[in-house]
Structures
1.
Amino acid sequence: MPVVLLVDTPNMSAAQFDAVIADIGPELPAGCQTRIAGPSPDGTSWRVVSVWEDMATGQAFVAGTLRPAQDRAGIPAGMPSIQSWELHDLAT
């Protein structure tokens, strides 16, 4: 079942996001259908919303690829808040 992951990282900058993407590569990872990113409305965090083929694939990416890249970009460990829900509809 496809899922949506919302990763909300306090005090993360666009430059740090760009560093993470440069580290992991700009292509969508296997199992990821789409990714959007930008600052939160109040500017206090950086949000990334992604759609994954299933929860296990998304969680494996976060743990095995994203968190290490965030560490290398200087983002404190344990900072992101992650929410998830089942996807009902996606139109592009």
2.
Amino acid sequence: MRVSRRAKQMSLRILPPDGRVEVVLPRGWSSEGLDEVLLRHADWIAARQREVRLRHRDELAPKLPRRLHFPAVGFDAQVEYDDRPDATRFRIHQEEGRVVLTGPCADARGASLALQDFLKQQGRALLPPYAVALAERHGLIPGRIGVRLQRSRWGSCSCQGNISLNARLLLLPRALLDFVICHELAHLRFCGHGPDFRALLERMQPQRAELQRQLRAAERTLPAWVRARKDQN
């Protein structure tokens, strides 16, 4: 909502590139009754949003990946976007060597969230068996291994031996994936981060300090689509 000294009456604008609705009010006007105005013009707003998003598709598309590459688990696929402006939801299906996203793909944030769901599904399929194999190599037995899409933690381990992993780990090189999982596996022996824990992790990952530095750098270089949020304006 914006107040304009030059405006003589209320007006609606659909802003590029993503179709946000701007309400322009003359100075001194009340926003009372605005909901009714928006409902009365809902069809016009939806039509104009579709037009604007399609016209500015090239501005939005670069935010979306053209390939999905999960280096540690050997997954690599081309991403194709089947834009359906009138669709109300996204669908993803896999074919040999490609992932096809169908839906209103001009909505870059919505498409990003759909890709995040796909990342989470792949994480739940690929990360637990990978972690179990790594645990067996070090003579450790984890409890339940869950996978979520977390924003601030790569992983965690409860005192009951249950491990939670971040689906975003699939985007990391194998050395960093192994480092994070070994960090959580070490908590199966030691809950805290004291000297015994650090010594065990050093035995499992001799390059611990360097890998920790690389992991911090990786957090800052995650692609934009995986950082999109549902509550983002």
3.
Amino acid sequence: FKDVAIMKADFDKSNLVPAEKIDVFINYTYGKDYASRSEIDIKADKAGSFQIKYSPQFGMSQMGYINFTVEATDKTTGIVKDFSVDRNGTASILYIALPAAGTYKLTVTTKYKSAVALTIITNGNYFYRNGPFLGNTIENYRNNLLSLPGYFHVPQGLKKVYFSINNSNPGGMGYATAAAINAAFLFKDNNNNTVTAKLVNSTDSALFYLDIPAGSDGYFWKAFKMEQYRLCFSNISNVQWYAAKKACTDADFKISVENKSGNCITKLSAIAKTGNLKWQVYDAGKLYEYANMPEIDLPNIISPNAIITLFNGSDCYTTKRLGDDPGFIKNFTACATGSTIPLIAAGVVVYPNPGTGIFKCQQNGQIVLANQILIYNSIGSKVAAFSNTQQFNIVQLPAGIYYYQLVIDGHTYRGKLVKA
């Protein structure tokens, strides 16, 4: 790109703001020594700071390595932070001070089957990806799709945006079809309308395009989800921003939990009771839509990762992640169990979470044997039980929110899991 300051002017024009936080899980590869490397660029308008909450996981009994480096990229030598975590590292917070306005790069390097869950608190700094991305087997944003660096700028006067897929024939299984690409990426225009990717040539799957309607150029569009493909734009900049659209006051809404006949129901209520109201709820690959309703009840299978958008007219909308609401988890847990359950304790978790049905028990990053495992549904009924095992299988249960109770060496741990 030519100049970050120019892109920031476009950023302001498009009514976007920097993402408040970035949630990402960085996994390891099966390359030499299980190494991986992730890079995120940063534009700071002034001296300031940001912080990284990290939770490491180590898959080898004697080895582990995670390194965080922050360096100024507009200076010859500008190391701001160089911090490493070894096999004995535990969850903590890393504070990074940015000494002046400028451009910086955060690099996370792991080796020896090490992985790490990150929550980056941006403190108003602009985080972005510089280069082909929007698809990566190492970085997982599925727990919070609003964290995906999906915003890309469509220059004024452009009629089509072209892109290719760098890994569109994985393992010789056949090139990606237009249907596969539209299933992997959910493209949205500047008014949050879904846009379908098309093949330039039906006999050649190397190049795709997005039509740019009149009046939708000169703004930021976004890719809303990612799968295994890596996308490379051909005629626009390959800079993707971690961002959010400024909330529209007329499309704001509240989230509450109510007990109806013994069932815990998540309710969404529009602040403005009149107008052209339309809801979109995206969760676990499914899209739910509701029109002309100031209040809606969400399905029981909805998860805290659900992305909710309320429209009030064509260019006014507000988007929130369900689990980011300050009171949702607390209120839902209290409703389901009659009392608040601590979500994680003493480094004990089930993994992966969310997951498709097979979960493993972990303590401080290591697989651990649970003497007893009890699974409860959202209304507090026991739906599964297991004993003396390191993992459990609830594939047969419907997708949704569940609560687990693990007994390990006489200690009881409780938490929440999401079956996708």
